[in-house]
Design brief:
Elements: E1 11-14, H1 22-29, E2 33-38, H2 42-45, H3 48-56, E3 61-65, H4 74-87, E4 91-96, H5 98-110, H6 118-121, E5 133-137, E6 149-154, E7 159-164, E8 172-175, H7 185-203, H8 212-233, H9 238-251, H10 266-276, H11 282-297, H12 302-313, H13 320-337, H14 354-362, H15 378-387
Parallel strand pairs: 1-8, 2-3, 2-4, 4-5, 5-8
Antiparallel strand pairs: 6-7
Helix pairs in contact: 4-5, 7-8, 7-9, 7-11, 8-9, 8-12, 10-11, 10-14, 11-13, 11-15, 12-13, 14-15
Length: about 400
């Protein structure tokens, strides 16, 4: 068990019609000037936008920026940041999913910084202060509502990269599972995949004996799979949507990696994909890459992969290696069953794209990816990506 400091300051307001408490929540924190940030129209279709505006007009001053896309881009961050510095908000209210939240975090970090906000993502500077961020969640996926991560894309550089800081953690999140009833089957499945990988990435960090967080991680993965299948069968299944939403938050606040080092490996590989092709949904890319990565590295810690198979799928082979292979196959089959891609062909990636993808993932061959069960050298990344061409 490693030494650790665990910070989880976000206050969660969870349940049916939780968004009706927005005025109460803002007043509780003393926020009067609200910088409202949202996406490309979905909150208007479900009636949430009108409800929020009515609340904000009842006693608050607000400025609004919309149009945040999936795989959020630094250009909008820069534009919104300029408006925020003029408006001088008390809080940034992000209404949407991970893309809106990460955009809000980038604006919040850049508010007290004179340089370009993408400098944080390029690791040129460290965030020392940021504006408070709160959220109303409308899609369960990224876990950004509780995480310390902020992932932003730079289309000009073809770089998608995150930075971590406790300053990135929102001060509150409002979570009503009913707000996710209208999320499409594809986006629901992509969200399920992302939630699962947030815990699987932590599970595959190097563990000591009696690592309780490993068991939490696998329980959360299994719960998310079961709830995901139920929500895909009945999009208005409140209990299933509630489980997915809560799992989204708990999978990425550090709980499932407590007491261990768990550098992500599948996420950086996927960031090369969606950094190169911004139209690739992050959760879909994660589901695509995980089985290929697992097949490449499982022999480095067969017991850990076998344990996953037993705990998540209740399956066991004649020995640990056979059990590990069964688990990798079953995970790939699960992702396929919920509509996630299983080859590069399905997301428009060709053999000619591989050198660029490898270069993006490895910093032109200057860095390894991940750490456990093995760090990935350039040759490993090439092999993993090449295996996805078929």
């Amino acid at each position: 068990m490693n030494d650790f400091t665990f910070v989880t300051p976000t206050k969660i307001y969870f349940g049916k019609n939780a968004e009706d408490k927005l005025a109460e929540v803002l007043n509780e924190f003393g926020f009067k000037r609200v910088f409202l940030l949202h996406g490309c129209g979905s909150i208007k279709k479900i009636g949430l936008y009108d409800k929020i505006i009515k609340i904000l007009k009842s006693g608050f001053v607000y400025e609004e920026v919309s149009g945040v896309r999936a795989n959020p881009e630094i250009g909008l961050v820069r534009e919104a940041l300029a408006k925020a510095k003029v408006f001088k908000p008390d809080v940034i209210l992000a209404v949407g999913g991970g893309s809106v939240l990460d955009t809000a975090k980038s604006i919040a970090a850049g508010y007290y910084y004179d340089g370009d906000p993408f400098d944080f993502n390029l690791k040129k500077v460290v965030c020392k202060k940021s504006l408070p961020v709160g959220s109303i969640l409308t899609i369960s996926a990224a876990g950004s509502e509780l995480s310390d991560s902020c992932v932003i894309q730079n289309d000009e550089l073809h770089i998608k990269q995150g930075f971590n800081s406790d300053h990135n953690r929102p001060v509150f999140t409002i979570e009503n599972p009913e707000l996710t009833f209208s999320v499409s089957s594809y986006q629901t499945a992509a969200g399920v995949s992302d939630i699962m990988m947030h815990s699987l990435e932590r599970y595959f960090g190097e563990s000591g004996p009696y690592q309780l967080s490993d068991e939490w991680a696998l329980d959360l993965v299994r719960s998310t799979m079961e709830a995901g299948l139920a929500a895909l069968k009945d999009p208005r299944d409140y209990e299933a949507r509630a489980a997915i939403m809560l799992n989204s938050s708990l999978s990425h606040n550090g709980l499932t990696g407590l007491g261990k080092a768990a550098p992500f490996v599948v996420h950086p590989l996927e960031h090369a994909l969606s950094g190169y092709h911004a139209d690739i949904t992050h959760g879909a890319g994660i589901a695509l890459i995980y089985p290929a990565w697992a097949a490449h590295v499982y022999k480095k810690d067969v017991k850990k992969f076998a344990h996953l198979t037993k705990r998540v799928f209740d399956k066991e082979g004649a020995n640990d290696e056979e059990t590990a292979i069964i688990g990798i196959r079953l995970m790939k089959e699960f992702f396929h069953s919920i509509g996630m891609p299983t080859s590069f062909k399905e997301v428009g990636i060709t053999k000619e794209d591989l050198p660029n993808l490898v270069s993006l993932a490895t910093g032109n061959g200057t860095r390894t990816v991940g750490r456990y069960p093995q760090p990935l050298e350039k040759e490993d990344v090439e092999a993993i990506f090449a295996s996805l061409l078929d």
